[in-house]
Specification:
This protein has 508 residues and is mostly helical. It has 19 helices and nine strands. It has a three-stranded antiparallel beta sheet with strand order 4-6-7. Strands 1-2 form a two-stranded parallel ribbon.
Length: 508
């Protein structure tokens, strides 16, 4: 790989795009060779070892965990304590996170630990890099974290895999970690004082999932603008609704950007004239820049928050390398990332709903657009026996209803747990998984919107009149998805269209 395709941990700041590239195996991960970084990490580790030999309370080193902090643990049991932490947290349930998500988690935790403060050994970080290099990916169940003392239970599967325990993905198959490491020539790591806690005690799962969601959300917003342009064209709408002067008058950056994408899709200038016909279109077309523009601005704000989290020490306790003072705090707490996930959930759901509203306009706008009711293309006396996209409209309603339900903020469902030690928790992993679920629903809605627009284009015979960007998209869709000429199943078409979009095979 070239230099630009490497993420150098400890040397450069990591952002959400870096996480996504590693997750898709488009970038490799290396540790910096900078002497100053290695010296700082060594001093941090020495501070841990010095304090571990002392008699003062040192959370997770000579004490129990959580509410069990009142229990004293003799120093000779320190290694047992580290192993027991990931062992008793091995209670995750539910589906496994995808291999791409687990890679994202690994690089996220590496970046956070490489900041220093935590006292983890460089050798342990190298072992994590080794897992990524050989694509030995921990199998991590989705369920089991409230995001308070970090993502303890899911991250225990990372600590366990490093130690040669539990299961991992290797080339799509599941096998024992010890076997996979032996086959790759890697040695399991014996985690020392505080190291299991350092790996597990942070926001790595929620931050990784949100990092992947952010890149995905921006791609969705761009595709959304193309669909708004296409539906506006089909509905004989007013390109003037996207005149740049409107957005100079109310200059929200996201609205300006989205309106520009719609104009590009329509192939019109910055100041399109008011056309003939109805002066104003329904809100689901006319007001799209003011809705999806918010999503774009939230993404910009989220990028800054996520970058801070990716490049910050997020466990407890931390070490002051200068004074060797142990700092007991709550940097593992996931409120910032939960806020990002909960906010993105709402905005992605709103944007997806607009596509569903536009679908309804296409299916029931015969008098103003010439598009046949329910997008039916059958002619003659047998026409009334067909129903076209009627059930697809119902499907779209179901998808959006579910997205809206999931959009409720997870953070307000805080639960007191772990003996009332974790008595206020952020619910970040739940928010992140809700966001992923909403994005899956939104992607399906996008595929439906594309098929409906292509169907309406065929039904009105306007393919040749499409602006070039829309014509290119129409042609790409029709390469894998044929038109509906009589009643048929649509699930296979939706699946094919969605696969083309996710594979990046559509010009949007």
């Amino acid at each position: 790989m070239t230099e630009r395709q490497r993420v150098c941990i400890g040397e450069t700041r990591v952002n959400h795009n870096d996480v996504a590239h590693v997750a898709r195996r488009e970038a490799s991960v290396v540790l910096t060779e900078q002497a100053s970084w290695h010296e700082r990490m060594t001093r941090n580790r020495q501070a841990v070892e010095t304090r571990a030999r002392g008699s003062e309370p040192f959370y997770g080193v000579n004490t129990g965990f959580g509410a069990s902090v009142v229990n004293t643990v003799a120093v000779e049991y320190g290694v047992n304590l580290a192993a027991n932490l990931f062992r008793f947290h091995g209670c995750g349930v539910g589906p496994l996170l995808g291999a791409d998500e687990a890679r994202a988690i690994l690089v996220t935790r590496l970046s956070q630990l490489a900041v220093g403060w935590t006292g983890i050994r460089v050798e342990t970080l190298r072992a994590m890099v080794g897992l990524l290099h050989h694509d030995i990916i921990p199998c991590i169940p989705e369920l089991g974290s409230v995001g308070a003392s970090g993502d303890l239970t899911p991250m225990s599967y990372v600590a366990a895999a490093l130690s040669g325990e539990r299961e991992v993905w290797v080339r799509g198959a599941v096998c024992r970690s010890a076997e996979a490491m032996a086959a790759a020539g890697l040695e399991p790591v014996t985690l020392e004082h505080k190291e299991a806690l350092s790996i597990m005690n942070g926001t790595s799962v929620m931050t990784a999932l949100v990092s992947l969601a952010m890149e995905r959300a921006e791609a969705f917003a761009r595709a959304h603008a193309v669909m708004t342009a296409w539906n506006s064209f089909l509905l004989r709408g007013q390109p003037a609704h996207f005149d740049e002067r409107l957005f100079i008058a109310k200059p929200h950056p996201g609205s300006i950007r989205y309106a520009g994408w719609v104009r590009a899709g329509l192939g019109c200038g910055a100041r399109p004239p008011l056309g003939s016909g109805k002066v104003q279109d329904p809100y689901s077309v006319r007001c799209t820049p003011h809705v999806v523009g918010v999503l774009l601005e939230v993404l910009e704000q989220a990028a800054a928050t996520v970058e801070i989290e990716l490049n910050a020490a997020g466990d407890n306790p931390l070490m002051c390398e200068e004074t060797q003072v142990v700092l007991h705090g709550g940097n593992f707490y996931g409120s910032h990332i939960t806020h990002v996930a909960d906010t993105l959930k709402v905005q992605v759901a709103h944007a997806a709903e607009l596509l569903e509203r536009q679908l309804v306009l296409l299916c029931h706008s015969t008098q103003t657009s010439g598009i046949p009711e329910n997008l039916i293309r059958v002619e003659g006396p047998g026409r009334t026996a067909h129903h076209g996209f009627k059930a697809v409209e119902i499907l779209a309603s179901a998808l959006i209803a579910e997205a809206m339900k999931l959009a409720a903020p997870a953070s307000v469902f805080s639960r007191s747990t772990e003996g009332h030690n974790q008595d206020k928790v952020p619910m970040g992993p739940i928010a992140a998984r809700d966001l992923r679920a909403i994005q899956n629903l939104a992607d399906h809605m996008l595929a439906i919107a594309m098929l409906a627009a292509a169907q309406a284009t065929d039904a009105t015979g306007r393919a040749a009149a499409l602006p070039p960007p829309l014509r290119a998209l129409y042609t790409a869709i029709r390469q894998t998805c044929d038109a509906t000429t009589e009643d048929r199943r649509h699930d296979e078409l939706i699946t094919r269209c969605l696969a083309s979009y996710r594979a990046g095979n559509l010009p949007i």
